[in-house]
Amino acid sequence: MSATEPEARQGAEPRTMQAGAKIVVRDVRKTFPTKKEDVNVLDGVDLTVREGEFLAIVGPSGCGKSTLLNCMAGFERITSGSIRIDSEEIERPSPKRVFVFQETGIFPWYSVWDNIGFGLGKMPFDKKHEIVMRYIALVGLEGFEKAFPAELSGGMKQRVEFARALAVEPDVLFLDEPFGALDAFTRLEMRREIVRIWKETGKTCILVTHDVEEAVELADRVAVMTRRPARIHSVLDNPLERPRDSDQPVFRELKDQIFEILGVERRV
Amino acid sequence: MSQALKILLCFAAFLAGVTLLHGWLNLAWFEPSNREQLTVAHLPVT
Amino acid sequence: MSPRALLLGTVGFAIFILSWHLATLGNQIGDLPGPAMTVRGLVQIAGEGVLWENVVASVFRVAWGFCLAAGIGIPLGMAFGWYPRLRETFNPLVQSLRPISPIAWLPFAVILFGGIRMSSDLAAIFLLFLSAFFPIVTASTSAVASLDLKYIRSARNFGVDGLAFFRRVVLPASLPQILTGLRLALGIAWVVVVAAEMLGVESGLGYQVMDSRNALRMDFVSAAMVVIAAIGLMLDMAMARVEATALARRGMSRR
Amino acid sequence: MTEQSTEGTIFHSKRYTSWPSMTEDIDAGNLHAAFILAPLAMQMARQGKTKVKIVHLGHRDGTAIVVPTDSKVESFADLRGTRMAIPHRYANQRILVERMMAEYGFSEDDLKLIDYPPPEMPAALKAGAFESYIVGEPFAAKAEMDGFGRVLYHTKDIWPNFISCVLIVTQDLIDRDPALVQELVSGITASGKWLDEGDERLLSGLVMESASNQDDVDSGKVIVPDEFGRTPRLQAAVIAAQRRYYNQNPELLKFVLTKPPDRVKYTELELARDEFAEIQHWAEKLGFFDSRPVTEDDPFDFLDYCDPRFEQGRLRDLPLQDLASAAAEGAQ
């Protein structure tokens, strides 16, 4: 960090509960024991995510943003501090909070239909069929029910993953750099898709990315993380109306601000 | 899992078939003989 | 097989057979048999029906040894793969027993199954079980141990665990590597059955080789070898088809 | 050929490919009767897991020392400093060679003895793996018949009535079913007598080539080529050549059984104490019983490994077609 870290964090979240807070992360620490000595990844993270909000978490790669997301999803236990969703401490993963992986986590041995129906568990066929077809329509995969992942493009596989996640009607979607493996054009297309789905379903979305432009383009607010051991440096409001255009001056200003916080030289 | 079941079934069928064949051809399962029998071994050399 | 591959394959065979023929020109029954003599020998033992008895005997033993090895080896291997403590306790034992050639077990196998009906068959099957068991356990262990973390997390995220998790995620995910292990194991078993039959039983292709040798009929020996090669190839192609059907439509991203 | 007769026990002959696989099957309890090397039988009786008894001899002679046709060796003395292949370290052939080495004053390393599988001896001799080999038939005759080998000695010349293979049965079978053992021994004695002294009647199940027709062949009858003739030894050559017995070329067996006629003998197969005493003497000398040495307080008597009781029984009569019907058949 080029600038010394200011004591009073700019726009830091007040510690008190925010109205409509969906997820409250308070003073979370996470250390990984290694042979040599413990690696301290998260060092006192505080963050509040509002109901139905699209929050982006930005930070240099390896700073621990994915670890934070894994802890919020319940895949990894925190060393200390607390993470509460709907004021309930996180114990383990749940269909209420579904995680979407970078290279898609859908199953290559199942067809699109079976993949999307995977989380629905035991239910009569026609009821499951009705739900699955609804989400196939939502992500625009009509006609591909019988296809297998190996026969789909990267973008289409991503859509199946979204459909699978949404089919169980979760409250929260965790997106861990979901477009990282896609080519530039598909990435743009999928960003529009996720915003459309987010608007239609009203889910709380938390996006982890190292692409600042992506964060500004998608999120209501952007939380910027410091280098490891990571903390939330600041959470910036994103005043831009949707649909957003990266040429707008305010867009660039917000991007510069984030780059500056991250201490990254933007000009190539 | 019906696909795995199909594979298992064809293995089982193959197994049963070859067992009966072996029994019939080499082990004389299907040639009842009431007379007492004794096997006398030898090597093809005097 | 594309026509080009078929053509090249036959050219390869043609060169082999031609050079084999030239090398054994003018040999008598007692010497190294040429292709023509081998074919005549093959026709003769096939005609006498003894060839089919021996083929059935060998395939019978491989089938049982292989299926038992798969039936026991796959679940055991998968358990080793999933439970690290189990793996740490038993894997060293498995890996140290593996290099022992199955043929070395023959004396024990004969004693172990002595006195029971079909004891020589059982001894041979026991040897084949061993020869197939180790590659299968090793393949199953590594298949489960290297299961992709994101599949495990996806399943747990959706609350799928226990038997459903095993049946719908662990098994299908490890199937490709297990099938490769099975195919390898079958190949090894087919090599071992011929060797095992040379020592202890009185039927089978290995016995046919040994017995023809005692009868000084080298043409029967090479005829038996041709049959051994042909059946070995057929078994491998059968396993390849099983693998193809099982992994149909998974494409390259099988895992 | 007991299938031909309608009553009594059916004796199946089972061909093994190596001595160890046979002894293992005996120890495993799968096998209760076998023709086996005499010293090996004694060794099993002495220190084997399964107690066995020799009840009859298999045959006499039928072993020869063979050298390449062009070799200059004329007598055993000429073999000094060469290599000789033997069938098995516990074979009687080894005792024969050791005895001759003593006779000709050979020291241990004057003649290198190599254990070698009998079927490969002819080809290996031709290939020069060793300068001579001693083995039972038909692997001695094989080299002779194919012209690249020459018999230096027949056993009838150097150890008359030489014992190579003996018939053993497990003690368990003797205790369990002595009548069966009796039936076996008297059957074998009868066949031996027929082989050496039988007349021209055909065994049932045999038919001369000229008298045979298609359904004879289909019903699995054994066809005796006319130029073979009808003498018992030639009938035996055709029978034994079958796949389920020796699986050899009939010509080779004919050669063994006739050139010369006393090359192998199938009569006077009774157990003789003095003959076995000599074998036992050499076996002890060569350390065959080292894991249980023979001493005063742990003797090894003739009756510890032989059981001659079954040799006194009435000979069994063979299923022979009487000449009249054979002639009639010939006329068809």
TrEMBL record, chain A:
Annotated ranges, domain ABC transporter: 23-252
GO molecular function, one term: ATP binding
Pfam families (UniProt xref): ABC_tran
EC number: 3.6.3.-
Enzyme class: hydrolase
UniProt-listed CDD domains: ABC_NrtD_SsuB_transporters (cd03293)
Keywords assigned: ATP-binding, Hydrolase, Nucleotide-binding, Transport
Signal peptide span: none
Keyword hit for ATP-binding: yes
Keyword Zinc listed: no
Protein name as catalogued: Bicarbonate transport ATP-binding protein CmpD
Gene: cmpD
From TrEMBL, chain B:
Top-level taxon of origin: Bacteria
Name of the protein: Uncharacterized protein
TrEMBL record, chain C:
UniProt record, GO biological process: alkanesulfonate transmembrane transport
Claim: Plastid is one of the keywords in the record: no
Pfam family for this entry, one: BPD_transp_1
UniProt-listed InterPro entries: MetI-like (IPR000515), MetI-like_sf (IPR035906)
Residue intervals passing through the bilayer: 62-84, 96-116, 122-147, 181-200, 220-240
A GO CC term attached to the entry: plasma membrane
Broad class of the protein's primary localization: membrane
Membrane topology type: Multi-pass membrane protein
Claim: Cell membrane is one of the keywords in the record: yes
Keywords from the UniProt entry: Cell membrane, Membrane, Transmembrane, Transmembrane helix, Transport
Protein name: Bicarbonate transport system permease protein CmpB
UniProtKB/TrEMBL annotation, chain D:
Keyword Cell inner membrane (UniProt): yes
Location(s) in or outside the cell: Endomembrane system; Periplasm
Keywords, alphabetical: Cell inner membrane, Cell membrane, Membrane, Signal, Transport
CDD domains: PBP2_NrtA_CpmA_like
SUPFAM superfamilies reported in the protein's UniProt record: Periplasmic binding protein-like II
Cited Gene3D superfamilies: Periplasmic binding protein-like II (3.40.190.10)
InterPro entries with a match to the protein in the record: NrtA/CpmA_ABC-bd_dom
CC terms in the record's Gene Ontology section: endomembrane system; periplasmic space
This protein's record includes keyword Amino-acid biosynthesis: no
Similarity comment text for this entry: Belongs to the bacterial solute-binding protein SsuA/TauA family.
PANTHER family: ALIPHATIC SULFONATES-BINDING PROTEIN-RELATED, TAURINE-BINDING PERIPLASMIC PROTEIN
Name listed for the protein in its UniProt record: Bicarbonate-binding protein CmpA
Species assigned in the record: Engelhardtia mirabilis
Annotated gene: cmpA
